[in-house]
Design goal:
39% helix; PH domain-containing protein; 3 domains; transmembrane; alpha+beta; seven-stranded antiparallel beta sheet; 15 helices; 23% strand; globular
Length: 529
């Protein structure tokens, strides 16, 4: 057993010794907060009396109890660390943990969907990170290695991605030992704890090209133009208008309404603050790029996350434009990636907010070949067209009786490489599903749809924020779409390979980035930060 992880280990290896304490910081924080509010002076917000001379028995008891709990946490953390080990092989990442109940997890590299390097706030302060290996397998399939030094986490991610691409890594130290017949000295625990160099990473980081950056001002503007802010601003205005219209005793009525409005607005305010913070924290410092390993995403304010999605792992893409973003022509792009769950919106965002040109560049990151002679024109018509614009099969006029607002904006079109689904009047949405990522398709028809001779086609994708559903198509069009998509999906799976991804994404991006409306990130110099 060894604790050296500067080169990805082929034997069972423990995580960094501080891992339990990085994960249990909330326990110590809760103990400290409880003690403060029970014993601090009232002028500091506590519930106790002013400190006088001497120690009260209650304070001594609480202090001893806190020390006992801290000692138990430390002892439990040490035992948990001793019982948690991991290793990587040429075809999997394995993790074993648990004291009373042992758990063993394996992430097969041939099912790899993404590799993330995550730094929560406390781990970021002390230079540690977690490596999360996402594989296709549903909820609970993620293998999380918490925590490693940041350099070790980067080296481990690089080797996992290289192994998934079919590269067999060879350590330089191993090659030298074979040549000289000598063996390298084992690394010391002190050296690992203090971060002293123990070896050279077996696989260097792939060269990265930054493509897009989201300016902070645009991110704040997109949050301010969200529906949550609009509703929050409307509530007090509506209350004042009602008072002025229906009441003659304006002063007393205003006081009553303001008091009632505050009581009703406070829960809404908490929701708006939570929504705002999640969008701001997740989109802060957002940079998207490409490398030979796949799409690279870097973002986060307190918790930073560096995601790497290998080529061909994105199952579906959604371009979304709320009504208030239409004047600036901003778009948000979300993706379905196997392994990411539906509630993980922060890790399923390909672009928090961007111009139309930014949205096209982000789309080409994951689907460089749309299979259309005029891809930009087709996507533009899909974003804002109606009816049969752009060669779409639109909903028939019979759908207007139960979908009067949106039926003109619904449609579906298949290119050589992807299925496009357009929908939405107030909130425009365009869903793009690569043919080879379609798992299956279904047809649904309610009683009103049967009366209007229309049906809904459901494209079954992995769990995520994107729902590929084409509603209210003519029944004949729906059946034809399902039959044709089965053939397209089979043919696309046969000819698409990951090696084709980088060769096609670079020319497609060069064409888009040549425009003036793309928010291009500064050159990274090929470094993986």
């Amino acid at each position: 057993m060894t604790t050296a992880i500067h080169a990805a280990p082929r034997e069972w290896t423990r995580l960094h010794p501080v891992s339990p304490f990085l994960g249990a910081w909330s326990v110590f924080g809760a103990i400290g907060a409880y003690w403060f509010f029970q014993n601090a002076p009232e002028w500091l917000g506590g519930g106790g009396e002013e400190f006088g001379g001497g120690w009260h028995p209650a304070i001594i008891t609480l202090a001893l109890l806190g020390l006992l709990i801290a000692a138990l946490v430390v002892a439990g953390g040490y035992v948990s660390w001793r019982m948690t080990t991991f290793r990587i092989t040429d075809d999997s990442v394995e993790l074993r943990k648990g004291v009373l109940y042992r758990q063993s997890k394996q992430a097969r590299l041939d099912r790899l969907q993404a590799v993330d390097v995550v730094q929560p706030l406390l781990a970021r302060v002390f230079g540690f990170a977690a490596v999360k290996v996402e594989v296709a397998g549903g909820e609970g399939s993620t293998v999380a290695l918490e925590y490693l030094r940041l350099a070790d986490a980067d080296a481990l991610r690089n080797e996992i991605l290289a192994l998934a691409a079919g590269v067999k890594a060879v350590r330089k130290g191993d090659a030298a030992a074979v040549a000289t017949g000598a063996s390298a000295p084992p690394p010391s625990l002190r050296g690992v704890i203090l971060g002293e160099p123990q070896g050279v990473p077996a696989v260097a980081a792939a060269a990265e090209r930054d493509v897009l950056v989201v300016p902070l001002g645009r991110l704040l503007g997109s949050i301010a133009l969200s529906g949550a802010f609009l509703w929050l601003a409307a509530i007090p205005l509506i209350a004042v208008v009602v008072v002025l219209v229906v009441s003659s005793d304006v002063e007393h009525m205003l006081l009553a309404v303001i008091g009632g409005s505050l009581a009703s607005v406070i829960p809404v305010l908490f929701g708006v603050v939570g929504f705002t913070w999640s969008r701001l924290a997740a989109g802060f410092g957002f940079v998207a790029g490409i490398s030979a390993d796949g799409v690279r995403l870097r973002h986060g304010m307190l918790e930073t996350r560096r995601q790497t999605v290998p080529p061909g792992r994105v199952q579906a893409v959604e371009l979304r434009q709320p009504l208030l973003w239409r004047r600036r022509d901003w778009w948000r792009i979300s993706v379905n990636v196997a392994g990411y769950q539906a509630d993980e919106a922060n890790v399923s965002t390909l672009l928090p907010v961007g111009t139309r040109a930014d949205a096209l560049a982000a789309l080409w990151l994951v689907l460089p070949d749309l299979g259309d002679p005029d891809p930009e024109g087709t996507i533009s018509l899909a974003m804002s067209g109606t009816g049969a614009d752009g060669g779409f099969t639109a909903s028939p006029r019979s759908a207007r009786w139960f979908d009067p607002m949106q039926w003109r904006h619904r449609g579906v079109r298949a290119t050589d490489t992807a299925l496009l689904i357009r929908r939405g009047l107030l909130v425009r949405e365009l869903v793009v599903v690569p043919h080879e990522r379609i798992q299956s398709m279904g047809l649904a028809q309610g009683p009103l749809q049967r009366a209007a001779d229309v049906a809904t086609v459901v494209v079954h994708s992995t769990p995520g924020p994107v729902s590929p559903v084409a509603q209210h198509l003519a029944v004949a069009d729906a059946f034809a779409l399902i039959e044709q998509q089965a053939v397209r999906a089979r043919e696309s799976r046969r000819r698409q390979t990951p090696e084709q991804w980088l060769a096609t994404v670079v020319p497609a991006l060069d064409d888009v980035l040549a425009g003036d409306d793309v928010t291009v990130a500064p050159a990274s110099g090929g470094r993986d930060e």
